[in-house]
Amino acid sequence: MRARTAAYLLSTLATSVVTVIALPVLLVVPPALRGWAEWHRRRAGRLLLLGVPAGERSAERSAERSAGPSAGRPGAGGRSGDRGWLIWRRDLVWALAHVAVGFPFGLAALLCLGNILVAAVALTSWWAFPDDQRPTLFSVLDVHVNDWATALVGGVVQIAVLGAVAWWVFPVLARLHGRLCVAMLAPSARERLTERVDVLTKSRVGVVDAHGAELQRIERDLHDGTQARLVSIAMQVGLARESLADDPETVAALLTRAHETAEEAMVELRTVLQTIYPPILSDRGLDGALASLAARSSVPVRIELAELGALPAAVEAVAYYVIAEALTNVTKHAAATKIVLRVERTGGDVLSIEVTDDGKGGAGEAGGTGITGMRRRVAALDGTVRLDSPPGGPTTLAVQVPCGS
After folding, report:
1. What is the pTM of this model?
2. Yes or no: domain 281-402 corresponds to CATH 3.30.565.10
3. pLDDT per residue over 177-207, tens digit each?
4. CA angle at 221 for the pair 217 and 204, rounded to the nearest 5°
5. Which letter does DSSP use for residue 335 in this model?
6. Domain locations in the chain?
């Protein structure tokens, strides 16, 4: 840990110098300043063992990309422009504080370690230097090493004193700088509110589009399928009524076809209704529905289902369709031999879903795997979707959906 804090302080000294040199570029290139600040934030989080997530900044970058090229520039209009200005100003203030605090902290660490090294050299090799270039101990006292007694006593004392300073002071300085970075680069309440508004706006647009597409699909299914069959039934019954007195055999055949067509129409109607809310959820609940999905999967599925309690119908439907789509994706694309499905309720008001397979990995939204559709479904309930699929696997799809009242 002490070596880690020493390395942190020395790198802080180096990055402070780089910040001063590159400051003109950072001022006019907001993405560069933002990336520089983000790197320090994550570095400080690792030092402090905070596990600082990258989600805030990735969400900011995603929102800025969706808002257009002017969103990240200071002074750009709109909510994304306001947020870009706030982030740029915050990062600039951090950069100045980083130099003001990090440079002296890092310089102190460098001087301390350098003098320990000088003492170590003086302790063992003072005699190898020319008389006028021999090491000096205790810079303030200007003690020249000209004999073994001075080298042994002075070197040991200097190493002991500076070693104690490094042992006790370095962690304190490193943590102070780390806390400064994390505190100054944390989003303010105004930034979080602005980001939240942007996210909700995007989610609302996606939900409206998805809702419109779903209505069009249902209308098309009913028009092309069920309605066509009902028209056929009406025509067959009409012909049967006209032939009732003259040709009983034709009437019987027409009624038979009308009966078959009616059954086909009912099957199609049930299929359409199942896409709105699966009947199996009403009949067997989410646990029974998931067991049914697992039984139908050609890849073995191990279900780890915790006690979920009562869930809203909309949450159950989203969970069902997301899991069904995920299992289908694994079957079609992953070449997996097993799937682990974990469903639990975390924090009392969040339904967490995790689908993990041992397939070949490399899954992404551009491959037509339905991830975009999942995101839209989940976003409608203010949830999140995270896909982790490195080449070679394993692939993990993590979904969180709020389910509180």
Report:
1. 0.47
2. yes
3. 999 998 888 876 776 777 777 766 766 666 6
4. 15
5. -
6. 2-187, 202-276, 281-402
